[in-house]
Amino acid sequence: MSKYDYVPEPALVKGDHDFASLTRLVTDINLRPTPKGWYLAMIGANALLAVLGIAVGYLIWEGTGVWGLNNPVGWGWAIINFVWWVGIGHAGTLISAVLFLFRQDWRTAINRFSEAMTIFAVMCAGVFPAIHVGRIWVIYWVFPVPNQMAMWPNFNSPLLWDVFAVSTYFTVSFLFWYVGLVPDLATIRDRATDKIRKYAYGIFSLGWTGSNRHWWNYEKAYMILAGLATPLVLSVHTIVSFDFAVSLIPGWHTTIFPPYFVAGAIFSGFAMVLTLMIVARKIYGMKDIMTDDHMEKMNIVIMVTGSMVGFAYMMEFFIAWYSGVEYEKAIFLLRATGPYAWAYWAMMTCNVLSPQFFWFKKLRRSVGFTFFISIVVNIGMWFERFVITVTSLANDYLPSSWDYYSPTIWDILTYVGTFGLFFTMFLLFLRFLPMIALAEVKMVIPQADPHNYDENHDYQAPKVEIPTPKAVEA
Amino acid sequence: MSAPAKKKIEEQPKLHGILGEFRNPKALYDVAALTVKSGYNKFDTYSPFPIHGIDKAMNLKKSKLGWIVIGHGLVGFCGALTMMYFMAVMDYPMNISGKPFFNAPAWVPITFELTVLLSAFGAVFGMFFLNGLPKLNNPLFNVDRFKKATDDGFFICIEAEDSLFETEKVKELLKEAGATHIEEVYD
Q1: Min Cα separation A372/chain B (Å)
Q2: What is the pLDDT of residues A256-287, one digit of tens each?
Q3: What are the chain A neighbours of B133 within 8 Å (beta carbons)?
Q4: How many CB pairs below 8 A link A and B?
């Protein structure tokens, strides 16, 4: 006998489910009356959304002086929060596109959910660059549309690249999400009994019939979109990192930024998916589809990307020393020991240390522990952006111009308010749209494969063949 | 044509095709192959998810979508470069810290993004175009049972437009293939 046991791939859907029971499990949520708890959550989310409205309104009324920005630190919480939210968004595209190209069928359980998260996170991110310009009424100057000065945007500026990258990212993510939704909206259309739902889902499902001639083009479109979204998602956070890397500020002007930002984005995004998934699957009883195996796989991704981020932190330090540039060396020493050392060590603890616990299978499969770490990771990733943005600016070339940056209440309220926007959108999503990509989940259960039927068209569960281990030659 | 005669025609519903329901993906796969073998080509199968390999059983040609996407991608690529060249070199050149007006490396990100954006439009709208969607009215929606096609039903519809179409023959074919339910679909 072998020392090792053969571990078959765990079933993607647990429990005794067939197509009809999956349909009921997912779409009943959208068809039954709104639960009271949803209203309570919505009131909370709307209250936070109102906070965002007030904070943004006051900012526009008074100007960016209400924020804690000072002379060396011209970029504060606005850019930190922007990068943080955009980074969170990246997990959705990674799950829906990259894992699709790698034929990771387990993604079907969580892709709808995380794509929705992507879209709402990018919305929250988009708030910050829009409002930080100060004069929001001329925000259209960032787009190549004719204006009264007869001037065009500066195509050499990374900030303008960002405009194109983030708006393309939002549009493509939205289209990808909608394409996935169409067959599932048709399912709700066909199950709906009241007039309003029949009309609404009928219009948005565009008359989808489930024709296999249509599926044929559909699958092609899905694959092409996945192929397009994969380089797109990498480009977006690369361009976000260019906002920093293309400048000449010590600690920013480094070539490691694009890969390190992308790894960090996936790291924080997976953590956010887990935070939301663990709560939602409990409330909506989705444990058969969003299983502990999914959680474990995602925890492994968190561990890998967390280690990549940790490696990047150490590499930055090494290169700062190896480059021999005084300012570069100084800024990294100041990060670890200077006025913001508390933030640096918070970042190191949350991002480098905490994911290492996932080397233990027991912890990877522990729901409570995963939930805890998923929140710790997102706190850590917020601190990462804080450390990068603030330390480099606060302690620049001339010590006489150094200053300490702290946020005001308006910085904090704007940030807290974006959670209101995020959760309002997310609650609407959970209520009105199927939160699981139903057609895709049906496709990966064994009953969907024609090979699992005999000549009389009766279902035969696939047998797991356990290979006999080869004798080890001495 | 006089008005009463027109009304009479409307009263007689036109046969759209024969709809057969099957038990599972394998049964649908087999009947699709049988339908092709019997010489029909105006038919379609309906299932809640794409069935693995049914394209071969139905003898489907490769999707043309790739061509639509590459066309759109090229428009995005050339359009982005043309736009930037016109704006930054021809219409209103600005000297920004001595950089060249035609600054190709700095234009890479925007060119890339617009190529991806237009390609994605091509993929999504091209797919809906090839599928003839949106099409909110479909004779199949008159059949109550067809609602199962988005849940757990597997259907085939052989259409009356097919040159070989004969109601009885088609019904016989579907019955022998093991259809659990056969129904005529009217416009």
Answers
A1: 37
A2: 989 988 899 989 999 999 999 999 888 888 88
A3: 206-208, 214
A4: 207
Alpha-carbon distance B164 to nearest alpha carbon in chain A (angstroms) = 20
Give the nearest partner residue to A209 out of B46, B49, B128, using CB atoms: B46
Instruction: Retrieve residue B46's tokens.
Output: 């309906």
Of A164, A209, A217, Cβ closest to residue B138: A209
pTM across the whole model: 0.90
Contacts of A453 in chain B (CB under 8 A): 24-27
Cβ-Cβ contacts under 8 Å, B24 against chain A: 447, 453, 457, 459
**DSSP E strands: which ranges in chain B?**
15-22, 43-46, 154-159, 181-186
Q: Report the candidate in A312, A306, A320, A310 with the shortest Cα–Cα distance to residue A253.
A: A320
ipTM, two decimals: 0.88
Q: What pLDDT, on a 0 to 100 scale, did the predictor assign at position B113?
A: 94
pLDDT at A471: 62
Give the DSSP per-residue string, A266-311: HHHHHHHHHHHHHHHHHHTT-TTTS-HHHHHHHHHHHHHHHHHHHH
**Domain assignments of chain B as residue spans, ordered by start:** 14-62+138-186, 65-130
pLDDT in tens, A401-446: 888 988 999 999 999 999 999 999 999 999 999 989 889 888 888 8
